[in-house]
Amino acid sequence: MKRLIVGVGGMTNGGKSTLSKGLQQKISNSCIIAQDSYFKDESAIPVDNNGFKQYDMLDALEMDMMMRDVGSWQRDPNWFLRQRGLNTTQNNGTGVFVLIVEGFLIFNYRPLNEVFDKRYFMEIPYHVCKTRRSSRVYSPPDPPGYFDGHVWPMYLKNRQEMERTVSGIVFLDGLKSKEELLAAVNNDIHQEIEKLREKA
Ligand SMILES: Nc1ncnc2c1ncn2[C@@H]1O[C@H](COP(=O)(O)OP(=O)(O)O)[C@@H](O)[C@H]1O
Ligand SMILES: O=C(O)c1ccc[n+]([C@@H]2O[C@H](COP(=O)([O-])O)[C@@H](O)[C@H]2O)c1
């Protein structure tokens, strides 16, 4: 059984979920694991001197649990898809199963970064990011000043660390239209799938 693991990373509100959901619809036998689903309970998140909850760091995430889920997909993608109520198409063993892992810190966690066959990172300028973020409601919601006081400085720090430690990332311009981004990445992934299919 052939497998491909694609990482869709990027800054907050860069368009990761939108792109990932589009890809899942276009790629048969694919599914998504989203890092957002692994945030620790609010009570476990430390607070800084300004009263800002420290959400934008790996410590805020249950990465062991996320790795366990990636591991279950790796062991048996067919079972994993069925567990999630997703259809699998019959492929006589020649098909390729694709896992899309999306999240804002997926390349900063080394054990996860190591599993990727392809890495994409969606970026948008500061002002666009701040505007998109301001219309999104998280749980708990961002307190006043959170973007400039926590989210953006942590993004800069995490990104610097990622660039120091990870290579082979394809950077995507998140200002392009949703359709254009989906078409380009979908095309790229289908080429990877073809390469895998051709391999004995
Ligand atoms: N290419 C795009 N162009 C314009 N707006 C976009 C684009 N991609 C996503 N968005 C919008 O930006 C917001 C955040 O998108 P989302 O996919 O949830 O980001 P992320 O998962 O990276 O946080 C949503 O309102 C979404 O509709
Ligand atoms: O999902 C949660 O439990 C949650 C609670 C508080 C904040 N978040 C924010 O979620 C952001 C990452 O998700 P995203 O989709 O914006 O890339 C990150 O910037 C956090 O500040 C997320």
UniProtKB/TrEMBL annotation:
- State any GO BP term from the record: NAD+ metabolic process
What stretch or stretches form a coiled coil here? none
Q: Which GO terms describe its molecular function?
A: ATP binding; metal ion binding; nicotinate riboside kinase activity; ribosylnicotinamide kinase activity
Q: Which UniProt keywords are listed?
A: ATP-binding, Kinase, Magnesium, Metal-binding, Nucleotide-binding, Pyridine nucleotide biosynthesis, Transferase
Q: Which Gene3D superfamilies match?
A: P-loop containing nucleotide triphosphate hydrolases
Pathway(s) this gene product operates in, as recorded in its UniProt entry: Cofactor biosynthesis; NAD(+) biosynthesis
Reply yes or no: does the keyword ATP-binding apply.
yes
One CC-aspect GO term:
cytosol
Query: Which reaction does this chain catalyze?
Result: beta-nicotinamide D-riboside + ATP = beta-nicotinamide D-ribonucleotide + ADP + H(+); beta-D-ribosylnicotinate + ATP = nicotinate beta-D-ribonucleotide + ADP + H(+)
Q: Which InterPro entries match?
A: P-loop_NTPase
Family statement: Belongs to the uridine kinase family. NRK subfamily.
Protein name per its UniProtKB record: Nicotinamide riboside kinase 1
